[in-house]
Structures
1.
Amino acid sequence: MKKNLGVVPGVYPMPVLMVAAYDENGKVNVMNAAWGMICGMDKIALFISEGHKTIQNILKTKAFTVGIADKEHMDVADFFGIATGNKMDDKFERTGYHATKSEFVNAPIVDEFPFVMECELAEVVDTENMYAMVGKIVNAKAEESVLDENGKVNPEKLNALIFDQFQSGYYVSGEKVGKAWNAGAALMK
């Protein structure tokens, strides 16, 4: 029997996304965002309020990167969610991490995270019920260590963090339990 829990943002898993942008002076700012998802083959939507420093930077530069946080870098990924660039001017510098300018968009790539999407700002959706930034993915990069023999990202090697909205925990993805578009094929008969 199910028990009523009230209003719970109960989508699991949630990604742990590292959203990075430059400010008007070329300074790196990074934030941790769990409320984001792919919304097209070349689009990503970030559901983040516009008060964040990183969002204000994206509105100015029209570009950003989205990295996937991994287990090895969980402490800094969490810090990027705790600290705000609106109050901490040296937020990125405190981590000792490194950034490289994307060759495709005017945004930084945080070198330590193993996978990143380089995005141009495509649209801002601002309604009574939602504020979202949609990015057009113009390129993706991955460390060779997380690629399989066919040059594709291997989730078992990526060790991507998953955010748990229920108990505010981090978990790691990776165990393959079936093949998409195949696991339910028997029911098609």
2.
Amino acid sequence: MSTSRLSRLPLSRIARYLACGIAAFAVDFGLLAALKTLVGAPAWLAAAVAFIVSTALSYLGQKYVTFSHSGRFASSIVRYLVLLAANTCVTAFIVQIFDDVWGLYLLGKVVATVMTTAWNFPLMQRWVYASGRQE
């Protein structure tokens, strides 16, 4: 099966989406733990910074690997940044609540990631990378 045919399979796209997401999550999670424990940053700040840094990897992976988006960079990056802003706020809020209530900021990060992952795939497919896809 050719690469172009493989990229059209929904399961293949979901697998690529998850692989890119797992790589970005590893960067995000490691940086969050380092900023909180080694630097002593508050959980909300560490979560926000780690999340923003990891999105560069996620953006490029999702754009080129998952969605094969060949559209203009400007259109997809603006939409991605809007989604990033919403996800950053949600992530920082959840991580801080988990830290304040239970002292489990890393578990909060996992919960926030599961939540944002669930709505990111359809939003990326239908909005962020909707125009300019090669399929």
